[in-house]
Design goal:
Blueprint (H helix, E strand, L loop, with lengths): L1 H28 L13 E8 L6 E7 L2 E6 L10 E6 L6 E7 L5 E7 L2 E6 L4 E6 L5 E6 L8 E3 L4 E4 L4 E5 L6 E6 L1 E2 L2 E2 L3 E7 L2 E6 L4 E5 L6 E6 L1 H10 L6 E6 L6 E5 L4 E7 L2
Keywords: Signal
Pfam families: Glu_cyclase_2
Organism: Ohtaekwangia kribbensis
Length: 274
C-alpha cells in the first residue's frame, strides 16, 4: 500500500508539473495589446483679435466672409444675453441680428439653404430665420437630451446634445436620420459641445476641457486632438472671469480656424493640418 501511494503521489506530481509547464507556455504566447494614444494635432496662432468679454459664447462660424457668434444667457449672470450676430474683429463687439428671451438660453447656430438655424439649451426647440433678413420663419422640436452645438455638412443639420451623441437632422423634415456615437480609445466621449465641419471631419469642443477633437463622421471615432491649454491660460491671465474654451469657426477662404471661449478677451486665428 505504501508503494502504491508513493507511485500515485509521483504521478500526481508529474501531472501538476506538466500542467504548470503548459500554463507557462500559454501565458508566454499571449500578446499584450497596447492601445495607441489619440494623435495630437499641432497648430500655430496666426492672428489675435478682440472678443467681447461679456459674450457667453455658444456658437461660432464663418458665413459669406463674416464671423458670426451665438451667445447664451445663464440667469445667474445678469449681464449676459442670448443673441446671434456678426463679430467686429477690430473691437470684438457683436452686431446683434437676433435676440431671444434670455430665459430661453441660445446655443449653437449654422446656416443652410438660405436659412439660419439656432438651438436652445433646455427649451427643446430650435428656431429658423431668413438668412438675409434674420426674420424668424419657424420653429422645430429638438431631439436628444438638450441643444448644444450645431453645424452642417451641406446636406444635414448636425447637432450635439451634451452627451456622446451627434445627431444628423434631415434638412427638410428636421427629424433625426442618423446618430453618431463619439468614441476615443478610452470609450465614449461625453460633453461633446460646439461643432464645426471641416474638410470631411467634425471638429468639436469637449465641454470643460481645453480640447478640440477631430471626429470621423463615418464611425464616430476620434482621429486627433488639439490641446488649446496655452490659449486658455492666456485668456484667463487677461480676464479672470474667462471660462471654458468654446467656439470653432472655419474660414475656407484663408484656411484659418477661429477659436475662442466664454468671456474670453480674444478670438484666436489658428492654422493646422485638417
Amino acid at each position: 500500500m505504501k508503494t502504491n501511494r508513493l507511485g500515485l503521489l509521483s504521478v500526481l506530481m508529474l501531472v501538476v508539473q506538466l500542467t504548470a509547464c503548459n500554463s507557462d507556455k500559454k501565458e508566454s504566447t499571449v500578446k499584450t495589446t497596447v492601445t495607441p494614444p489619440i494623435p495630437s494635432i499641432s497648430f500655430d496662432v496666426v492672428a489675435t483679435h478682440l472678443h467681447d468679454t461679456a459674450a457667453f459664447t455658444e456658437g461660432l462660424l464663418m458665413h459669406n466672409g463674416k464671423l458670426y457668434e451665438s451667445t447664451g444667457s445663464p440667469l445667474e449672470m445678469e449681464n449676459t444675453k442670448s443673441v446671434v450676430g456678426i463679430v467686429d474683429l477690430q473691437t470684438g463687439k457683436i452686431d446683434a441680428k437676433v435676440e431671444i428671451n434670455r430665459a430661453i438660453f441660445g446655443e449653437g447656430i449654422t446656416f443652410l439653404n438660405n436659412k439660419l438655424y439656432q438651438l436652445t439649451y433646455e427649451a427643446k426647440v430650435g428656431y429658423i430665420y431668413n438668412a438675409r433678413t434674420f426674420k424668424k420663419t419657424g420653429e422645430f422640436p429638438l431631439p436628444g437630451k438638450e441643444g448644444w452645438g450645431l453645424t452642417t455638412d451641406g446636406t444635414h443639420l448636425i447637432m450635439s446634445d451634451g452627451t456622446d451623441k451627434i445627431l444628423y437632422l434631415d434638412s427638410v423634415s428636421l427629424k433625426p436620420v442618423k446618430t453618431l456615437l463619439v468614441q476615443d480609445t478610452n470609450g465614449p466621449v461625453r460633453n461633446v459641445n460646439e461643432l464645426e465641419y471641416i474638410s470631411g471631419y467634425i471638429y468639436a469642443n469637449v465641454y470643460t476641457t481645453n480640447y478640440i477633437i477631430k471626429i470621423d463622421p463615418a464611425t464616430g471615432k476620434v482621429q486627433g486632438r488639439l490641446d488649446l491649454s496655452a490659449l486658455t491660460r492666456s485668456a484667463r491671465s487677461q480676464n479672470k472671469n474667462a471660462l471654458e474654451l468654446n467656439g470653432i469657426a472655419y474660414d475656407s477662404a484663408s484656411g484659418n480656424v477661429y477659436v475662442t471661449g466664454k468671456f474670453w478677451p480674444n478670438i484666436y486665428a489658428i492654422r493646422f493640418s485638417y
